[in-house]
Specification:
Layout: H1 13-35, H2 39-48, H3 61-83, H4 88-105, H5 111-132, H6 138-158, H7 165-183, E1 189-190, E2 193-194, H8 195-215, H9 221-240
Antiparallel strand pairs: 1-2
Length: 249
C-alpha cells in the first residue's frame, strides 16, 4: 500500500503570504543572476533549492530525486531559456512563469495537476535540451532524451498508483531515446522547437489523455479512435512537410 503525504503549506494569514514571498525570491534571484551573466550560479541555486532531497538517509535519495525531478527540469530549463534571450522583458516573463509554476502548478497534487506537471516538465526539458545541446554528440542527446521521458512518465504514472509504473516509464523512456537517436541525424526545427520535442510532446500528451480517460472508465472506442487518428495525423503532417534536405548530422 502506498501512502500519500500531503504537503504542508500555510493556508491563510501572515504565514501564507510569507510562504508565497519565499517562493517568489527564487525566480527573482534567478532573474538577477542571469541579467548579471552568472548563468552557472543561477543553475546551481536551482539545484541547491532542492537540498532537502538529501536531508535523509542515502537509501531514500533515489526516490527523492525522482519525486523532485520534474520540478528540477522546469527550473533548470527556465534558466536556460532566460540565458538564451537577450531581452530583459522576455527574461522577466520567464521569471514570472517560474513563479506561477512554484506557487500554483507545483503544489498541485490531484490527477489533473500531476498530469499538467509531467507534461510541462517533459516539454520544458526537451525544449531546453535541444536549444543548448543541439550540436552535442548523438549518444548524449539520446540518453538525455530517454531520461527526461522516463522521469516525466514516472511522475505521471505514480499519481495513478499504476502497478506497472516503472515498466511503462522505461518503455516511454526507451521510445523517446530511440526517436531521439533516429531524428538526431536529421535535427530539424520549427520556429525554434526541435522536431523531436514536437513529436514526443504530441504523442506523450495523446497517450496520457488516453490513459487518463481509461483510468476513469471514460474511454470509448470512438474516443480512442479519434485520439489515435489525431496523433497519427499530426505525426504524418510533421514528417511529410519537413525539409529533410536541411539536416544536421
Amino acid at each position: 500500500m502506498r501512502l500519500h503525504l500531503k504537503k504542508f503549506q500555510p493556508a491563510s494569514g501572515f504565514a501564507h503570504f510569507l510562504h508565497i514571498g519565499l517562493q517568489v525570491i527564487l525566480p527573482v534571484a534567478v532573474f538577477i543572476l542571469v541579467r548579471l551573466n552568472f548563468v552557472q550560479l543561477a543553475l546551481s541555486i536551482i539545484v541547491l533549492s532542492k537540498w532537502r532531497m538529501f536531508a535523509v538517509r542515502p537509501r531514500f535519495w533515489p526516490a527523492n530525486i525522482r519525486a523532485n525531478a520534474v520540478d528540477l527540469m522546469v527550473g533548470l530549463s527556465i534558466v536556460l531559456f532566460m540565458s538564451h534571450s537577450g531581452s530583459a522583458l522576455i527574461q522577466l516573463g520567464w521569471a514570472a512563469l517560474y513563479a506561477v509554476w512554484l506557487i500554483y502548478v507545483k503544489p498541485g497534487s490531484d490527477l489533473l495537476m500531476t498530469t499538467t506537471q509531467a507534461f510541462i516538465g517533459q516539454l520544458a526539458a526537451l525544449s531546453a535540451l535541444y536549444l543548448v545541446w543541439a550540436a552535442g554528440p548523438v549518444y548524449g542527446l539520446t540518453l538525455a532524451t530517454g531520461l527526461i521521458c522516463f522521469l516525466a512518465a514516472r511522475h505521471f504514472l505514480d499519481a495513478f498508483d499504476e502497478p506497472y509504473a516503472r515498466m511503462l516509464a522505461y518503455v516511454w523512456g526507451y521510445f523517446g531515446a530511440a526517436l531521439a537517436w533516429l531524428l538526431s541525424h536529421w535535427l530539424l526545427y520549427y520556429h525554434g522547437v526541435a522536431q523531436t520535442t514536437l513529436l514526443l510532446s504530441t504523442l506523450g500528451y495523446g497517450m496520457a489523455v488516453l490513459y487518463y480517460l481509461d483510468h476513469h472508465d471514460r474511454l470509448g472506442k470512438g474516443a480512442r479512435r479519434q485520439f489515435i487518428f489525431i496523433m497519427l495525423a499530426i505525426v504524418v503532417v510533421v514528417l511529410t512537410f519537413s525539409d529533410w534536405g536541411d539536416k544536421v548530422v
